[in-house]
Amino acid sequence: MEKPSASMWRRIKSRYNLVGSICKTCNTVYFPSRTVCRKCGRNTKMEDSTLSGLGEVYSFTKIYTPPEGFKDVAPYNIVAVKMKEGPIVEGHLVNASKDNIKIGMKVKAIFRKMLTEGDEGLIFYHFKFEPISV
Amino acid sequence: MRKVAIIGVGLSKFGERWELGLKELMAEAGLMAIQDANISSHQVDAIYGGTMSPGRFVGQEHVAALLADQLGFHNIPATRVENACASGGTALRQGFISVASGIHDIVVVGGVEKMTDVPLSDATTALGGAGDQELELSQGITFPGLYALMARRHMHEYGTTEEQLASVAVKNHDNAYKNPFAQFHKRITIDEVMKSKVVADPLKVLDSSPISDGAAVAVLAPLEIARKFNEVPIEILASTQASDSLSLSERSSFTEIKATQIAAKKAFEQAKVSQKDINVLEVHDCFTIAEIIALEDMGFFKKGEAAKATANGETVLNSKLSVNTSGGLKGCGHPVGATGVKQAVEIVWQLRGQAKDRQVSNANIGMTHNVGGSGATSVIHIMKRAD
């Protein structure tokens, strides 16, 4: 992982607990959280809002050519998930059977290890998605 | 606002230019442009240099002043412009604005990127910075990955097929074959695209633009004095730009780029022309799906119909609409900061009738479309002959 650790920890609320935000003026939910509402501008009234973690696959891919830090885990499945609360959230998909990923498939967010800094370095955690078994 | 024309253009050969550094690449294109414009160094009032990530690729920042000095322009204002893969197009627009406003007369616009000095994973990381670092790159979601998410959704909504996407690459390699400046001089088949290595499913290596070195330069002047330098000035009829969220996930649709739709609409209004007036067009085909989405967003085809039309040969050289005659980013190469300026260079050559084997007959009004990231920036220019 090439980025400095600080930027990982700064986003810990969204990465560990799916905490986004909601604008109380227009009730739009954002993930990740933001300070200024796209719709309300100077009338923004932003508060934390935790997503349920439930959603449906909106699009998906499998990445074979990774950036720095992801060589050991490639290839990996990526999904864009339309969350129950509205926002689209991108993340890794795990525990899916090989050819079974489909648009519209129901998934839920789980908490997993993303990367390790070598054998003795820090471990970075992140939300990922897994299929909701039917 | 004054009318603005391009009076000279230059291009380096695109490709893996192991033998040249950043300075030599810029000089190769720059010297050609100032000779083409027939200007002497002391006549240049200002320079804009478009480049995305020279700090990452070769450890060099402050590139516009470097460009000015390498071209022998003494002490003029030099400004670097960065908008990811749209840095070149944005630099051209800044040059246009500075001439149109009356602040400067002769303005040089350069675009450059020297990408092949670093390993592929470093280049992938640098390019990933064009998306939202905290949301996308931090999870290992690469640029091919983002366009793959767009492609998959386009296939789902409109029945677009991987073979239809492949036809974009086949066409652009055909055009590049006829362009001596292009990175690739190799024709490819649908079958070869389909069997090439997967980068981010459903996109394969041959759906993707390459890592490239290259530079492109254009010289601008007010139209009223342009003919003093060049008998065939090319007037810039429109120069427009729009932006959106850096992250793909924060946009309302994966099958359209809103910034392109807005910039294109404004460009047609500004130039007072419509889609049917354009017969030569350079679009930002960083991946095959990007050309399809661009043709739809710019209104040349209805949503969901550009892939079928491309597979039917409706955008090949000297069809009704010749798209990416240079070979596009796919065939000509994609030194990111240079691309937006290179598109303008190709249109200038087409409108002057200097495109040789790839000349579009009756090239009348041309258009360029340059995208940054997965669609956070879109820059569009419309040009025509003004002789």
Quick take:
The complex is a heterodimer of chains A (134) and B (387). Chain A is built from two helices and eight strands. Chain A is mainly beta and 134 residues long.
Count every beta strand of chain A, where a strand is a DSSP E run of 2 or more residues. Answer: 8
**Would you list the SSEs of chain B in sequence order as H and E?**
EHEHHEHEHHHHEEEHEHEHHEHHEE
Assign a percent range to the helix content of chain A: under 10%
Q: What CATH architecture label of the domain at 53-134 in chain A applies?
A: Beta Barrel
**CATH topology annotation of the domain at 53-134 in chain A:** OB fold (Dihydrolipoamide Acetyltransferase, E2P)
Q: What is the level-2 CATH architecture name of the largest domain in chain B?
A: 3-Layer(aba) Sandwich
CATH superfamily of the largest domain in chain B, please?
Thiolase/Chalcone synthase
**What oligomeric state do the depicted chains represent?**
heterodimer
The general outline of chain A is globular
Give the SSE string of chain A.
Answer: HHEEEEEEEE
Mean pLDDT of chain B: 97
**N-C termini distance of chain A:** 36 Å
The neighbouring-strand order within the major sheet of chain A is 6-5-4-7-8
**Biggest sheet details of chain B:** 10 strands, mixed
Q: Find the biggest chain interface.
A: A-B, 34 and 36 residues
Q: What Rg of chain A do the Cα atoms give?
A: 16 Å
Class of the largest domain in chain B, according to the CATH hierarchy? Answer: Alpha Beta
Helix content of chain B: 25-40%
Kindly report how far apart the N and C termini of chain B lie: 20 Å
3D architecture notes:
The complex is a heterodimer of chains A (134) and B (387). Chain A has 134 residues and is mainly β. Helices cover 9% and strands 41% of the residues of chain A. Chain A has helices at residues 5-10, 12-17, and strands spanning 19-23, 29-30, 46-50, 54-63, 76-83, 88-92, 106-116, 123-131. The mean pLDDT of chain A is 91. In chain B, helix 4 crosses helix 14 (336-352) and helix 7 (162-177) crosses helix 11 (288-297). Chain B is built from 14 helices and twelve strands. With 387 residues, chain B is an alpha/beta fold. Chain B has a ten-stranded mixed β-sheet with strand order 3-2-4-7-1-8-12-11-9-10, with helices on both faces. Chain B has two domains: 4-119 and 213-234, Peroxisomal Thiolase, Chain A, domain 1 (3-Layer(aba) Sandwich); 120-210 and 237-385, Thiolase/Chalcone synthase (Peroxisomal Thiolase, Chain A, domain 1), CATH 3.40.47.10. The interface between A and B is medium-sized, with 34 and 36 residues.
